[in-house]
Amino acid sequence: MTILSGLDAAGRRRSPATMPGYHAGRPPRNKGIRYPADPPTVDEIVAVMRHTAENRHGWRLRAMIVVLWRAGLRVQEALALAEHDLDHRRGSILVRCGKGGRRREVGMDEWGWEHLRPWLTARVDLPVGPLLCIIDGPIRGRPWSGAAVRTEFRRVAAPGGCQAPVRAAPAAPCALEGAPRPSSDCSVPPATHRSLSPRPVGSAVRGASAPPAPPAPPAPSRRGWLQAGRPVRMDGGCPSTRG
After folding, report:
1. Pairwise CA distance, residues 93 & 103, whole Å
2. Which among 40, 101, 163, 230 has the fewest CB atoms less than 10 Å away?
3. Residue 12 lies in a domain
4. Using omega within 30 degrees of 0 as the cis cutoff, is the peptide bond preceding 103 cis?
5. Complete DSSP assignment for 100-116
6. pLDDT for 55-110, tens place per residue?
7. Side-chain-facing half-sphere of 5: CA atoms under 13 Å
């Protein structure tokens, strides 16, 4: 039978919080608290892209941003991409191992491919490996780490006072096989943009035009809820889909 000591391996007194059963019967302080999502705005993402350098490091960071933003990938999903997972002709990106080990195919609009192209050209000169890889040193060509991605985002976003786009607000799922591809869900009409620099936000990165905003989906009607077999409140509102 093992007897727990009040001292650690170095002979120092252990904190009671490290002992088994200390938190037994105590609810966690954050129990029941819901933290709202706080994705970066379109202005902030575009401002970060404008602060990237015109070299391989800047092209790699810009490629990461458009893959997160326009295709809606997670950081680890983007880091696991290989060059053969991209299909520019169909506008699709293959995620081989997503959340829960699921395989899926997502789309990206032409605006995203335009800003991904400089990095694809520079990637040819690096050793074979993942799409977004280390650029310099003896380990160039090896996988880029998620911690390094977030550090680079914070470094580039700090001068402009912007929020680092990790994870960027995902774009709407793009249709494949020639169907029209909508833009990001988080986009707002150009008239409501705030200018973050002398150039208008509509000019986007290095003179490129910002992607258009899709029309807002119509609110579900009372008749539509009845046809779907769902109850309708007596005050005329539609019930929540949760629960």
Report:
1. 11
2. 101
3. no
4. no
5. GG--EEEE--HHHHHHH
6. 999 999 999 999 999 999 999 999 999 999 999 999 999 999 998 889 999 999 99
7. 7
Give how many domains the chain has, as a whole number: 1
Is the full-model pTM beyond 0.90?
Answer: no
Range of the domain at 130: 42-176
Assigned domain for 205 exists: no
Supply angle C-alpha 220, 223, 225, rounded to 5.
55
Please spell the DSSP secondary structure of the chain, one letter per residue: -----SB-TTSPBPPGGGSTTTTTT---TTTT--PPP-PPPHHHHHHHHHTS-SSHHHHHHHHHHHHHHHS---HHHHHT--GGGEETTTTEEEESS-GGG--EEEE--HHHHHHHHHHHHHHTTSPSS-SSB--SSTTTTSBPPHHHHHHHHHHHHTTTTPPP-TTPPPBPPPP-TT-----BTT---GGGPPP-SSS-GGG-STTPPPPPPPPPPPPPPHHHHHHTT----TTSPPPPS--
- Give the pairing of strands 104-107 and 86-87: unpaired
Q: How many CB atoms lie within 10 A of CB 187?
A: 19
Q: Which amino acid is at 52?
A: T
Do residues 83 and 131 touch, judged by C-beta distance below 8 A?
yes
Does residue 197 register a pLDDT over 50? no
Question: What CATH number is attached to the domain comprising 142?
Answer: 1.10.443.10
Residues 176 and 107: beta-carbon distance below 8 Å: yes
